[in-house]
Design a protein that fits this description.
Length: 140
């Protein structure tokens, strides 16, 4: 098991993890677990994993618009359509990053509910990237 994901899943609301602690979170593993398992893994997907993915997206130069576009693409065409994109995000680092996320999601199997859940997660990550752009902090 992935201990980073397990720790994120086991965190109680009173045990909030700092952003710096999430930097090395295995986002693809959290995506797979969060799409397959309700409860703690699903909460971790939309909290810790989304925050970690936001930081990874920023480091790859990926903004909220391409993530929002990808979310809409997944919602409309599912995992298969997303995997068929030759360039799922602009630039090689961003493309490689989101390809890993898409592959992790697709590994859960074709299922409309999981595809929509993943699209919602991508939308959440896009929103976090946008919020961090609008309200920068001093530690960046």
């Amino acid at each position: 098991m992935n201990t980073d994901v397990d720790r994120a899943v086991g965190a109680e609301p009173s045990q909030v993890r700092a952003d710096t602690e999430l930097a090395d979170l295995d986002v693809p593993a959290a995506i797979t677990r969060g799409l397959l398992l309700d409860g703690g893994p699903r909460r971790a997907l939309f909290t810790e994993a989304a925050i970690a993915a936001c930081h990874q997206a920023e480091q790859a130069g990926l903004g909220p618009y391409p993530l929002g576009f990808l979310a809409r693409h997944v919602r409309a065409g599912g995992f298969t359509a997303a995997l068929d994109l030759t360039e799922p995000a602009p630039g090689e680092p961003a493309g490689a990053l989101v390809r890993g996320w898409i592959r992790a999601a697709a590994a859960t199997g074709l299922d409309l509910g999981r595809e929509h859940l993943f699209a919602r997660w991508l939308g959440r990550v896009a929103a976090l990237v946008e919020l961090r752009r609008r309200f920068p902090t001093r530690d960046r």
